[in-house]
Model the fold of this input.
Amino acid sequence: MKAYKYLFLLFVSLGIVSCSDLEEDPVGLLASPDDFFQTTDNIQTAVNGSLTHAINEKFWGRKLSVALMLRSDMVDLASNETRRVENNELTTLANNGMISEFWLKTYQGIAAANQAIKGAESVNVPAEAKNPVTAQAYFARAFYYFHLVRQFGDIPYISEALTPDNTAQMGTIGKTSAEQVYENIIADLQFAKTWLPNTQASRAIPSKAAASSYLALVYLTMAGTNDTANFQKAFDEAQDVILNKGVYNLDLDPDFQNLFNADVIDSSIEPIFALDYNNFEAPDNAYDQIAPMTGIRGDDRNSGGGWSVAVPSLEVYTTWNAQDYRRAVSLDDGASINGNLELYTNFTVSGHQFAKNRPYIAKYTRFPGAFARGNARATSHNYSMMRYAEVLLIAAEAAVEINEPEFARTYLNEVRSRARMGGTTLSSGVEVTVTGSAEPADHTGTVTANDVLEERRLELAFEGKRWYDIVRRQLGATAFGASGLEGVKPDFSPNDYLMPLPADELARNPNLLPNNPGY
Done:
């Protein structure tokens, strides 16, 4: 699957270059949607163009993923670059460059999805032939808007394809309420679930299971802390995936490390939807830099080591049960620096000002596969946006809230059981086998929402999930208080649950004013 494939889709100033597991053919310059969209293959090309925008340094390759890490209580900042400081300290300004870049890249993905949906209308084949392809575009549009609405609340909602006639009009659109955006996301995902096949050739291509799993997460997010009706919907959707895991070819991978090993992840049946990077640095920053951003300064691995930017606080490591195999996989507590084996207590031996004596994130630096640039940039990683373990935890959390304690306990313990199985990983740069342990033990009492949220924190650590959990459960006062993993963040207020709309966007379109409260 790791072949180099390219897409050149140029239409209405939307330039797209692909380097993913998606199948594309060069199509050159498109005169108009009506001229281009003649077959289902044309729809597929446009869909692949939409998803390609997510495989970019300005989206998951660095800007969005690292912002989500820093805003959480699991990752601290070791460097001093202003826009990262603002995200880490929750003092983000509207002119923050990280926000403006992933805002634009997200809307480019949406625009390409809209183009595919509109273009499909011109393809004269039965619905049974084209809807399974068009459904991928509906999924992509929902995927992008789900990120935007959780970050910004009320946002411009654009569902029309850009044309020379309406491009100027799009620049004057106002904000759509978050409630309406969620309704639109649900409608798109329901269409996708209806028409997508049960399985696809790659987990980078949306399937029925991906649509259903995202519906479950959308309902869980909308439920907040006390919306029983949406908790019930979340449970029903998640259980639908669980009960049909055989049909969807899903299950927990027996070795947790496999999920973060670029050399074996294609064979795992745990990912449900992934963003697949393929060891290629395409134009327009279409590659990833998460490994160096989270890597150890002076580390002898990966042709130059890491940059010591996003580094967990020491408490993330010391409060994590040492017998939990996920800690060994998720964190590096040793490394080879200048040819010498060093424990985390001496990582500053590298001499760099940003080096920290604490364990670093290991999920993206140990097994990046082939990479195109030093420091493990442009890796071969598949980043799981949704995987089966999360579906189990969605079902468990929703089950708590709808008073289904047996389901909550069963699904929570299934995830814990895998964590006890152990496996093969790297410790201080040396391959070791971690044998099974008694921890984390099965939960035998009443499962609470906090139990499930804590399990999500560990299971999904550093995967861009924790900030969204803090927001939807309104956990900021605790997470960023004196007992928090990073200590007190004195600038936190409930206004920080939403990011500011980008200042340059507001300047271009005053119809988006006022900005979110507090900005």
